[in-house]
Structure formats: C-alpha cells, structure tokens
Specification:
This protein is α/β, with parallel strands linked by helices. It folds into 2 domains: 16-150, Rossmann fold (3-Layer(aba) Sandwich); 172-372, Rossmann fold (3-Layer(aba) Sandwich), CATH 3.40.50. 42% of the residues lie in helices and 15% in strands. It has 12 helices and 12 strands. The strands form 2 sheets. A 6-stranded mixed sheet has the order 1-2-3-5-4-6, with helices on both faces. The chain starts with 15 loop residues before the first strand and ends with a helix. 51% of the residues are buried.
C-alpha cells in the first residue's frame, strides 16, 4: 500500500502500511487483518489489529507502550483486538473488535507529534476504501493525542468537545462506574453483602480508571489497599481525601482482602498469582484491566478461579462502560451515562444467571459464549442476505 501525505514533517514515502501474516502466531484467533504502520526514517512502528467486522467497523483503543520486540507487540494487539470483539458484542454495540499498539521507546510514556502524524497517515490509508477501524483512548494515548490525530484522520472516537452536554473525551470515569456497579452485584451474589461498606478491596493500578474506581469505593465506605508504579497517583488521591493504604507492586497479591481489582496491564492473573490471591482470602476478582488472564486462549485461569471457589467477573463484561462511551460520541451525555450505570451491571446479571444454570462451567467461558452468540448471529444474517 502507498501513503498519502497529510502532515508537514512526513514525506510521501516516509510511511508504509502493509498487511502482515499472523496465522502462525500463537495468539492468532481467526483475525481478519493486521496492519503494520512503519516509518523507518522516524523510528515509528505501530500495529493495527482487526479481529472482526461482523457487527460493524472495528473499534478499540490505541496503546502507546514499550515492547521488547515486534513479536511481543503483535501478541498484545492480537489479544487486545480479539477481546474487543467480545466486549463490543456483549455491550450490544454495532462494532467489531480492533486495537492499535505503538512501540514506544523504553523511557517514553508520551507520543510525540511525529508519532501521531504517522498514526494519522496509517489510519487514513487503512480506512481509505472502507471504514474498518476506529481508534480510541488507551494506555498513554490521551485526549490531547487523539485530538491531534483527529485533525487529519477522522477515524478517532473520544475526542474533546466544546459542548458539555454531549459525549466526548476520556472514557475512564465511565469505565470505573460500570466496574463499581458490577462489583456491588458480585458482592451480593458471592458474599451476601448489600453494599461494599467495610469490605477490603486490593487494587492493582490507580491510574485514570483505577483512581476513579478508588474514589467510588472510598465514598461507599470500602477499605482500599492499592499499588501503582507512579507515586503521583497516591498524591492525587490524597488531595481528594481518598484514603488508600499503599502496597508494593508484587505484595498486592498477598494482601488480605475480599475483592481483588486488576486495573493496570493485562495478563496478571497467572496460576501462581491466583493461588496467592486465594491464600490471601480473595473471593471476588473484578477490575477494569483488559485481558486479565495470563492465558487468554482457553480461559485457563478462569477455570482455576472457578475450581478455587473465586468469582471471576469477566473483564469485557464489567469494564464495557468505556467503549460504550466512545461509541456514543456526540450523543446526549446524561443519557449515555445512565445507560452505562444501568445496562453494564444488567448484562453482568444476565451472565450470572447463566452461571447459576450451569454450575459446572466457569464464568469466563459462559461470558465468552454470551458474546460469541451475538457475533455468530451477525455472521449468519450477513450470509443469509448474500445468498437470499
């Protein structure tokens, strides 16, 4: 593929966009397409993964993070884009699953304008003939970065707006609301508690979403113990009078608590860490992070938690508030907020009812079947229209 020049610091041959073969990668899960966006002169490499467009153009965040290799970055985009298919399907959105990752230098947490220009080039090329991917906010890719990309590439959801009454900007607070409401339902289901008051909740990650969730838990009267790689998040919460007992990054798995909330990077629910959480008394795992299980394919950790009597709240069910928010950009803010507050926990309750009906199955498997059913129905309807 060739590129179109749309930013002053990039020449006509600076950015290449190519489809890459991924069917031999261990994280390949019937993905439709993966694109490599590469600007060698500017040392920028990004990958855009499109897992499915059965329900509509794919939608998912663009992540800016350090990866040791392109193979590692590819694994992340494959896992994340597949998870977005199930999240968007379970949230009843007319979007398939997609994701973007940008390979950042090890010491960088903020993309520069050249990197954003390369992304804008890539998105324009990818969506040149048909809209197949919309990008959104994700790790280290905030509103300012999205606003900048959107100046030349309109394939961005979640840019800011001057109208305070419409959906725009960061989805983090809405993600936190959905997780919080689902956590209350989980506490009632598993612990017989009508509120989270006085429950001990260990939190891994107190950034944009985790911090907002900690505020909600504090107001509810929960006892919050948390860890984060950044010192400033504790200062920010302290300035808001949100009390958080600090834990070490690794010690968080051994903190005595009722609920564990993973809100940072994915893959932290390994077999070993689950055993540590179980030993620490954790009865519920409910957090905002994506791809929480170490082995996303096969749901190994979900089954282990089920066997240990722990209630695992599937990430793409409980953290769907954020993607609903960005999918509804431009709509009435109050209406969408109330939809998230009520319908995210409603769908979680639907999955819990299926769980009660099939006690031999783990909740992760049941949630996946729940999401897959909508995607399969869409594929069958499309096939019927083509042959009808």
């Amino acid at each position: 593929m060739t590129n179109k020049q749309n930013n002053n610091d990039l020449g006509p041959d600076d950015v290449n966009v190519t489809k890459i073969s991924v069917d031999t990668h261990p994280q390949y899960m019937d993905h439709e397409t993966v694109y490599k966006v590469h600007a060698p002169k500017h040392n920028v490499t990004a990958l855009i993964g499109v897992h499915s467009t059965a329900l509509g153009p794919s939608l998912g965040g663009i992540r800016y993070a350090f990866y040791k290799s392109e193979h590692e970055a590819l694994g992340d985009v494959l896992r994340l884009s597949q998870a977005m298919t199930w999240k968007n399907a379970a949230a009843a959105l007319d979007h398939g699953g997609g994701k973007g990752v940008v390979m950042a230098p090890e010491d960088s947490r903020t993309p520069d304008k050249t990197t954003l220009n390369v992304l804008a080039h890539g998105l324009n090329i990818i969506n040149e003939n048909d809209i197949i991917y919309y990008g959104a906010e994700d790790m280290n890719m905030g509103e300012a970065a999205l606003d900048y990309i959107a100046e030349t590439a309109p394939w961005i959801k979640g840019v800011t707006s001057s109208d305070p009454n419409v959906v725009s900007g960061t989805p983090s607070p809405l993600t936190a609301i959905g997780v919080f409401e689902c956590m209350k339902i989980a506490a009632q289901f598993k612990l017989g508690k009508n509120s989270l008051k006085d429950l001990r909740i260990s939190m891994q990650g107190l950034g944009a979403v985790g911090g907002a969730l900690a505020e909600l838990l504090h107001k509810e009267g929960a006892i919050v113990i948390g860890c984060d790689v950044a010192d400033f998040v504790f200062d920010d919460l302290g300035a808001k009078s949100v009390g958080v007992e600090r834990s070490g990054l690794d010690e968080i798995y051994d903190v005595r608590a009722d609920i564990f909330a993973p809100n940072a990077i994915g893959g932290t629910l390994s077999d070993e860490n689950i055993q540590r959480l179980h030993k620490a008394g954790i009865k519920i795992v409910c957090g905002a992070a994506n791809n929480q299980q170490e082995d996303q394919i096969g749901g190994v950790q979900s089954r282990l938690m089920h066997e240990l009597g722990m209630l695992y709240c599937p990430d793409y069910i409980v953290n769907a508030g954020g993607v609903i928010w960005v999918a509804m950009v431009g709509k009435d803010k109050k209406t969408v907020t109330e939809d998230i507050r009520s319908n995210v926990p409603k769908r979680f309750e639907e999955v819990l009812k299926l769980y009660e009906q099939s006690p031999d199955k783990d909740l992760g498997t049941i949630a996946l079947d729940y999401a897959k059913k909508r995607v399969q129905n869409a594929k069958e309807n499309t096939s019927s229209r083509k042959t009808g």
